[in-house]
Design the sequence.
């Protein structure tokens, strides 16, 4: 027995601890996603497809805006050699999140009527005020999580994910049972993105206190200038990426009759389970080790190995879930959700490619190709949103189908470009003597 445990431990610690780190994050995420899976049949009976449509609009707005709330300083946190610079990046990310949340609140107050007219969701009138709040908490959590990633504190991150899932879903169930309709789903989502902030803050404060005591405004200014590619390029790249995924949900909600966006929301939640369970864990670990591999000129081989692992452990569960969906969804979630099962078949190729590409897409930032990342995401935005608007005007019966196919095409293009760039970067590193 001891020999077996020793072998398992050696396997997990192989390749610099990659598998062990992934297993810790997967364990925490598995618990969180398990709670999410068990709760979905309850939520679909407490809330109507129309409630999920309003929830889909909120989550889409939150996803689009929150990725830019820190001006992307958060993704730079694991990269610097010195902890002092990383601490300054955390502060820049937190300050950015606070200021942008205030700006968004002001925009909602000034253009409240105009925004509701564009969304074509009159029932969203009071719920829209919760968007800036969600953006603020999401920005704080992401900033502190990337610090924990830098410090390779994967057990801490795993614990926060479990706390988020339990807290958020509990709120959604309680408020749903009390008849709060879409408000219950949204308040629960805010709790999901904010729970765990306390433990991450305590950890950050303990490790960064000495750096913070010596901090001067000029240090923040210099760090801002040194990392100005992130707000200049990465912010718009992230906005384009998120908008390419989330804006179609808002457009479908506005153009289609009935609860099409609600069905799509449930489909995306179900398919996000393996994405977060496996892809999210690999992404965290990839980002913590990739800067070191890049310096050694081994980023391309490391990236290829990560993709192979993703294919082995992630694609098969995704295929099984989608192929069974049309038969299982009506029984698990209720007959009124049958459309969701059909949608998942269409979304399978898209989500397979997204699962593979999303973790390794960070290689463009590590290699300093933020401008290329922005260009790719802009192309993706045009393909997905531009084409969807044309379908909405002329062939609105097939808006969802186009959305699914365009996602697959975009991620195929993205993966090809990533491979070309990191291969070139590795060759350049090898040619320069250390």
Sequence:
């Amino acid at each position: 027995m001891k020999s077996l445990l020793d072998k398992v431990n050696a396997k997990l610690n192989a390749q610099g601890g990659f598998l062990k780190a992934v297993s810790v994050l997967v364990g925490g995420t598995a618990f969180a996603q398990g709670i999410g899976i068990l709760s979905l049949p309850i939520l679909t009976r407490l809330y109507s497809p129309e409630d999920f449509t309003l929830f889909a609009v909120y989550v889409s707005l939150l996803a689009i805006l929150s990725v830019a709330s820190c001006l992307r300083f958060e993704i730079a946190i694991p990269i610097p050699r010195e902890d002092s610079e990383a601490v300054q990046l955390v502060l820049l990310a937190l300050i950015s999140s606070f200021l942008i949340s205030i700006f968004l609140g002001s925009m909602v107050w000034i253009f409240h009527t105009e925004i509701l007219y564009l969304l074509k969701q009159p029932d969203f009138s009071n719920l829209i005020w919760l968007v800036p709040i969600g953006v603020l908490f999401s920005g704080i959590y992401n900033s502190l999580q990337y610090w924990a990633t830098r410090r390779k504190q994967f057990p801490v991150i795993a614990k926060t994910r479990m706390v988020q899932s339990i807290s958020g879903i509990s709120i959604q169930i309680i408020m749903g049972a009390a008849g709060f309709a879409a408000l219950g789903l949204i308040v629960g989502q805010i709790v999901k993105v904010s729970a765990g902030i306390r433990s991450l803050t305590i950890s950050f404060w303990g490790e960064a206190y000495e750096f913070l005591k010596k901090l001067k405004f000029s240090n923040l200014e210099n760090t801002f200038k040194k990392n100005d590619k992130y707000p200049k390029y990465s912010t718009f790249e992230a906005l384009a990426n998120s908008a390419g995924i989330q804006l179609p949900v808002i457009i479908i909600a506005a153009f289609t009759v009935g609860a099409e966006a609600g069905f799509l929301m449930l489909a995306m939640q179900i398919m996000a389970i393996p994405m977060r369970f496996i892809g999210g864990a690999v992404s965290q670990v990839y980002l913590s080790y990739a800067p070191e591999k890049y310096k050694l000129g081994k980023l391309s081989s490391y990236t290829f190995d990560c993709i192979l692992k993703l294919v082995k452990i992630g694609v098969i569960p995704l295929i099984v879930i989608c192929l069974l969906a049309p038969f299982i969804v009506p029984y698990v979630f209720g007959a009124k959700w049958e459309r969701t099962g059909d949608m998942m078949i269409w979304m399978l190729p898209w989500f397979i490619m997204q699962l593979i590409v999303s973790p390794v897409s960070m290689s463009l930032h590590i290699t300093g190709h933020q401008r290329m990342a922005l260009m790719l995401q802009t192309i993706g935005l045009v393909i997905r949103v531009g084409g969807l608007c044309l379908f909405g005007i002329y062939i609105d019966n097939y808006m969802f189908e186009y959305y699914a196919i365009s996602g697959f095409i975009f991620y195929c293009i993205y993966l090809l470009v990533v491979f070309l760039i990191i291969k070139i970067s590795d060759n350049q590193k090898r040619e320069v003597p250390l």
Q: What stands out?
A: Residues 300 and 399 are 37 Å apart (CA to CA).
